[in-house]
Amino acid sequence: MLENPRSPRVRAVAKLTKRSARQETGLFLLEGPQAAREALAFRPETLVDLFATPSAMERHQDIRDAARAAGVEVEFTTEAVLDAMADTVTPQGIVAVARQSPTSLKDVFAASPRLIAICEEVRDPGNLGTIIRAADAAGADAVVLTGRTVDPYNPKVVRATTGSLFHVAVAVGADLADTTSRAHAAGLRVIAADVGGDDFLARRDLLAEPTAWLFGNEARGLDDEALAHADLALRLPIYGRAESLNLATAASVCLYETAFAQRARG
Fold first, then answer.
1. Do residues 215 and 126 share a domain?
2. Is 209 a member of any domain?
3. CA angle 175, 181, 184 (to 5 degrees)
4. What is the H or E stretch that residue 194 is in?
5. Which whole-number Å values give the CA distances from 152 to 23, 29, 104, 126, 230, in the listed order?
6. Separation of alpha carbons 145 and 128, rounded Å
7. What is the Cα–Cα distance from 39 to 41, expressed in whole angstroms?
8. Is the Cβ–Cβ distance between 163 and 36 less than 8 Å?
9. Same domain? 93 vs 110
10. How many whole angstroms separate alpha carbon 265 and alpha carbon 41?
11. Domain boundary residue among 99, 120, 140?
12. H helices of the chain, where?
């Protein structure tokens, strides 16, 4: 059992909350039973370490069984060690370390996608995690992150995906011009979500076709250079008195409306 919160091994895990350590090692941090459960179910080969307190393993025996089936050893720790490893103030007794496994941009478009989300300079970890989760729920084929978007392996992003990081293809560090060029070559229409765009409902019929949604920065949206890469821009209507919609909420609506349209067409 790991008992010393200041041991080199514990410190190495804790360092994964920092982007520099993640870039250097190619690893990232998972916290909580749900993240461990999804990793074991969908990408067990990426798991490097799985740490848990004895009481947490008692509460989550399905994780213990899944780890055994996947050949992943559970290493027991004290509560103090878990606290030292985790990014959250109140960890839930389980922490894991996994290898980063982004999908290449080439593979994203080689799979003939019908629905993808492109994130250009999305900076808030919670927003990005929620967009990845919404894309997964809507059945999107991939999420492409440009180089100016927050690291998807940031612990806050990982938590916000609630496991969807292991379900949907995620490409990182992409160039926006290259991404939209590949999207066009693959037969997708690139639609920017922008407050200056056309009314969403007036162009809703377009969503049944293969679509790449382009989402921008939370505060500034998409600049003119980014908008120039899109075929058109659409805005969601505001029927109440809200000044605007949160980025992740707007992205969820756009992705689901497209999923509905594409499935209705069959």
1. yes
2. yes
3. 140
4. strand 189-199
5. 12, 11, 14, 10, 24
6. 9
7. 5
8. no
9. no
10. 32
11. 99
12. 8-14, 19-25, 33-42, 54-59, 61-70, 79-85, 105-110, 125-137, 155-161, 176-185, 224-227, 247-265
Final residue before a domain boundary, out of 99, 123, 154? 99
**Domain count along the chain:** 2
Contact 82, 3 (CB under 8 A): no
User: Tens-digit pLDDT profile for the chain (266 aa)?
Assistant: 999 999 999 999 999 999 999 999 999 999 999 999 999 999 999 999 999 999 999 999 999 999 999 999 999 999 999 999 999 888 899 999 999 999 999 999 999 999 999 999 999 999 999 999 999 999 999 999 998 899 999 999 999 999 999 999 999 999 999 999 999 999 999 999 999 999 999 999 999 999 999 999 999 999 999 999 999 999 999 999 998 899 999 999 999 999 999 999 87
How far is the C-alpha of 10 from the C-alpha of 31, rounded, in Å? 14
> Can you tell me the distance from the alpha carbon of 212 to that of 118, in angstroms, rounded to the nearest whole number?
7
